[in-house]
Amino acid sequence: MKSLFFKTMLFTALMLLLASCTTKKDGAVEGSVVPPSPGMRVTVSQEGKPIRAFDIDSLDGKFRILLPAGKYDISVTSPSAPYPAIFPGISVLSNATVTLPPVETTRPSGAKKLTGKVTPSAGTTLTLLSEGKERAAINAGTDGKYEFVGLPAGAYTLRVSSPGYAETYEEISVTEDRESSRNMRLLYAAPIDGVDWNLGIIRAKGKGKFPSDSPNTTIMREMARRAALSDAERNLVRIVEQIKIDSSHDIKSSMTNSAFSIKIKGYLQGFKLVGEHDIEGGVELELELPLTGRNGLTGILAD
């Protein structure tokens, strides 16, 4: 019993020593944004790759990050700032704190809002990009509503992501004469042949055979193209019907709603012909539909 007791005490002491050593290796970076506002975020990068990001307290605008000793790039984004504040090459030493200069932001005259609602709301993050750089990021509310404030007029990209759903982008223009509003819908990212979630597109192929009784080559090819187009359209419908609006409902099961059915049928007619190939005894066509964007399936569902 004594041997077991001493072994237990020795193990506990060793774990405390290791924890102490680990803590001493960490340093810290702290800073603040003035005036504070919702939607502020700090991102830590190392060797060009983001390794940590989190929201800054919107009440006092202060942040503090514990980091292992090393060199980092720190960027701070705020809706009230036209571009991120970047602090490159920040050296963090063990058991020491680096204090960054305050990030001062001013709301530009004529600043506007970008508001809307996103579905699903749980765990959904909305990131606003300007000229390819992150401007601000916020989490959707429990009701799905979001709001970016203090935006100068210009072109933006709104990126929306949520665990288990396909990330979507949409180009948005904020003008000086009015505030902008945009609802967003994410699609459940289930594996489906013909759906490329990364590129945000749907593709379907169709085949048509050359008829043996056509009077000439031109008519023979045109009849094969028509058959291939009909086949591709049918395949496109089958693919779209499999796409899930959420974990338990797909497009096909929702087509019982007449208004919804009309929207989907109109969307399906907006395909593009992106490929035509000769195959043995006929023709193959490839059609494409956008998944994301204002004219994509996410835009149709959001409206």
Please give the domain count. Answer: 3
**Biggest sheet: strands, sense, closure?**
4 strands, mixed
In the CATH scheme, the class of the largest domain would be Alpha Beta
Low-confidence stretches: none
| Total number of strands | 20
Structural class: alpha+beta
The helix tally amounts to 5
Rg from Cα: 27 Å
- The CATH topology annotation of the largest domain reads as Dodecin subunit-like
Based on the coordinates given, report the CATH architecture of the largest domain. 2-Layer Sandwich
Strand content: 35-45%
Mean pLDDT: 84
The share of residues in helices is 10-25%
Please tell me what the overall shape is.
elongated
What would you note in describing this structure?
By secondary structure, the protein is an alpha+beta fold. The protein has 3 domains: 27-104, Sandwich (Immunoglobulin-like), CATH 2.60.40.10; 112-185, Immunoglobulins (Immunoglobulin-like, Sandwich); 195-302, Dodecin subunit-like, CATH 3.30.1660. Helix content is 23%, strand content 41%. The longest helix is centred in the C-terminal third of the chain and has 26 residues, at 217-242. It is elongated and about 85 Å long. The chain starts with a helix and ends with a helix.
List keywords for this structure.
41% strand, Immunoglobulin-like, 5 helices, Dodecin subunit-like, 3 domains, 4-stranded antiparallel beta sheet, alpha+beta, elongated
How do the helices and strands line up, and which of them pair or pack?
Blueprint lengths: L1 H24 E9 L6 E6 L2 E7 L6 E7 L1 E8 L7 E8 L4 E3 L3 E2 L7 E8 L5 E6 L2 E7 L5 E7 L2 E8 L6 E7 L5 E2 L2 E2 L9 E2 L4 E9 L7 H26 L8 H4 L3 H11 L3 E8 L2 E9 L6 H6 L1
Parallel strand pairs: 1-7, 1-8, 9-15, 9-16
Antiparallel strand pairs: 1-4, 2-3, 2-5, 5-6, 9-12, 10-11, 10-13, 13-14, 17-18, 18-20, 19-20
